[in-house]
Specification:
Radius of gyration: 24 Å
Oligomer: single chain
Number of strands: 0
Shape: rod-shaped
Largest sheet: none
Amino acid sequence: MTQPHMIPDLIIQTKTLMREKLGVGASDMTRAVGKAKNRLPRRIYNQALLLAKAEPLSVHPKLCLTLDAPALGEAAGDVQKYLKSIDLADQRKGWILGMLGGLAFNMILFVVVLVLVLYWRGFF
């Protein structure tokens, strides 16, 4: 069970994970979620938006009592679970392999076009 006074800590932990896993360096949760919008699944993005909307209220001692602490705790848990599942090394390998695959395709296409032009000109 999440207590209302624990919500700022959950938000800070979530921002730290976003900075580590997505490279989103922002001072508040709203900006961090905005920068990470395209890299988050819709369900996780919506839960991160709940945390962003609750951030200004969570630092005020009386207003934090108005927040739905169990729902925010569950949202923070889901966002953190997703962020912890991101493998940065696998993403780097995938990016490099994708780039090399595209480069190999372009080289093969160039050689095929070169052979066709040479054949058309009568050099083969």
